[in-house]
Amino acid sequence: MVSPEPAPSPRITSILFIALFVGSWLFLEFLLVGVLAVALVPLFVGGFFLWWFTTRRTPIDPHRVIIPYLLTVIAFIAHVAEEYVAYIRGYHHILEGSPFTLTLELLLLFAATLAPILWLFSAIMLLKRWPAGYFAVSAFLFGMMFIEPSHYIAPFIQGGGPHYVGGLWTAVAPIGMGWYTFLRIRREVKRARERSPFDTGST
Question: pTM of the entire structure?
Answer without folding.
Answer: 0.90
